[in-house]
Amino acid sequence: MHPAFSVLIFTVTSGAGYGLLAWLGLGQTLGYSQTLTPELQLIMGVIAMALVSVGLLSSTLHLANPKNAWRSFSRFRTSWLSREAVFAIALYPLSALYAAAIFWQWNSINVLAGLCVVLALITLFSTSMIYASLKTIRQWHTPMVPALFMAYALSSGGLLFLSVGYFFAPINNQLLNICIGLVLITLALKLVYFFWQGKPQGATLQTATGFTQASVRLLDAGHSAPTFLNREFGYQVAADQLLRLRVLMVLVAFIVPLGLMFWVEQGATANVLVVAWLAMMTGLLLERWLFFAEARHVVRLFHGEQRC
Amino acid sequence: MKLGLVIDLDTCVGCHACATACKQWNTSGTIGPLSDERPHGKDPSGSWLNRIRTYEVGDSPHSKTVHMPMSCMHCEDAACVTVCPTGASYKREEDGIVLVDQDKCMGCNLCAWACPYGARELDTDSGTMKKCTLCVDRIYDLELPEAERQPACVMTCPTSSRVFGDFDDPDSEVSKLTRERGGQQLLPELGYNPVNSYLPPRNPKQQEKLKVSALQGVKQLVNRLINR
User: Fold this and answer.
1) For B184, which of A203, A210, A224 is closest by C-beta distance?
2) Residue, of B216 and A11, whose pLDDT is higher
3) Once rounded to an integer, what is the mean pLDDT over residues A188-203?
4) DSSP state of A142
């Protein structure tokens, strides 16, 4: 799949935004956020919704005909993209109410925080299901994709929560440990995904053409220059380069942030967490690029690939 | 009704006439122009609703060249319609034709991602998705003589490799051909239940065997035994 930059930005930044909101809301319901000043909570909420907004705006850049984007709320009952749009928009008034509750210290703050967490997670799930629901791309059509999207969002959101929080308040090692645990789980899940992805499976050129008892080779694709299908689905990166990028991704997105978080736990200045967060976001952008570049759509079979 | 095409892989010669006839008819049809980019340039590109690919099946010297025209299969379980967030993609209740409402499409590409057959192509000029309409503006046109109320690709095919009809009617030509020649779906394992049916090339040896009468069969068997 062609990795469109607008979609990479959309999923990574809005993921971090929803993750931060989820951490803030969870912290509220579990009694941690109360130790932060209301101003700090508001700053975090604004950062979260700003990241979400940047992501959503970026996603509209991917549309070839954005003037019809408003229609995307209309097929809530069948389309995950439509659900994602509806939930994403619904979160704005809810998060505004949560912000008001923080500002005026309403009694209903715990309920509003809880609702924000639930809706943020549902939105994240809907985003991931846009990809996981496509049977045509076997690398995406797995329950691991929603799990990974949630894990990335909660890791990057959590790290951002701690980075911003530690600017103003003393370090809470318990929360730092929870975040380290999340990042470790995410890394493990990603490694499992890589191994699973490497296993030969999926549709073949034989089932695609119906000639299941003989070998099939493409002689002629029928066009002299690349078509929409080639540009969108024919994206190809050399295998050794993919491997190098995978290693780089694991280092930047997971190993470096983990190392920095352990360092902070050992007493380094909390500003290091900001560096850790920036590294993780860069790594996650690379991860999302790989997510697209390594996904092989079944249309490639008709253009001569033997197996997807 | 379940309208669709039967494509005979035995007789298709890969002349691309169906694709050009399709482009000519539909570029001035209901879905607006099928725009081209750099049509006379070095790397011309554009939206086509029908593409023909050529494969070598089997290993030389026992290989066969097969031409495979592909357009929308008008799937019974059309994922492109399910994923569409705007409702631009729809499947007609009355005849099963899958269409894109050009006034509603926002060009998000998700339907093209969901389609395993590469039947949908984004028109970069209008920013909307273009696909085979099964010439919905021909097949119901009462102004045309009845014999011409068929898709442009079917009308133009010089070897009559393309047949149009109703798969719900067991006595229609498309149903008979699919039944008698063992018509196949492409990528059946994905479960989209494509309507279009591909007739595999005939096997001459197999055909002869089928023609042999019972008496001839006994004679052949005796001859073979004597030869031994």
Assistant:
1) A210
2) A11
3) 92
4) S
Do A163 and A276 touch, CB atoms closer than 8 A?
yes
Contact A81 B88 (CB under 8 A): no
Structure confidence at residue A30 as a pLDDT band (50, 70, 90): confident
Instruction: Collect all residues of chain B within an 8 Å Cβ-Cβ radius of residue A67.
Output: 106
Q: What is the mean pLDDT of residues B15-29?
A: 95
- Cβ contact, residue pair B54, A78, below 8 Å: no
Q: What is the arithmetic mean of pLDDT over A87-92? A: 96
User: Is A182 inside any structural domain?
Assistant: yes
Residues of A whose CB is below 8 A from B52: 222
Residue-level pLDDT at B173: 96
Q: Is residue A39 part of a domain?
A: yes
- Indicate the number of domains in chain A: 1
Asked if residue A308 belongs to a domain, the reply is no
Amino acid at A268: A
Residue A160 lies in a domain: yes
Q: What is this structure's pTM?
A: 0.91
Structural domain containing residue A265: 5-303
Separation CA B122–CA B46 (nearest Å): 9
CB contact (8 A) between residue A225 and residue B45: yes
Question: ipTM higher than 0.95?
Answer: no
For an interface test with A, the pick among B8, B38, B45, B90 (most A C-beta atoms closer than 10 Å) comes out as: B45
Residues of chain A found within 8 Å of residue B198, distances taken between Cβ atoms: 210
CATH number at residue A41: 1.20.1630.10
Q: Which residue in the set B52, B56, B82 is minimally distant from A217, CB to CB?
A: B56
Confidence of residue B216 (pLDDT cuts 50, 70, 90): confident
Residues comprising chain A, all counted: 308
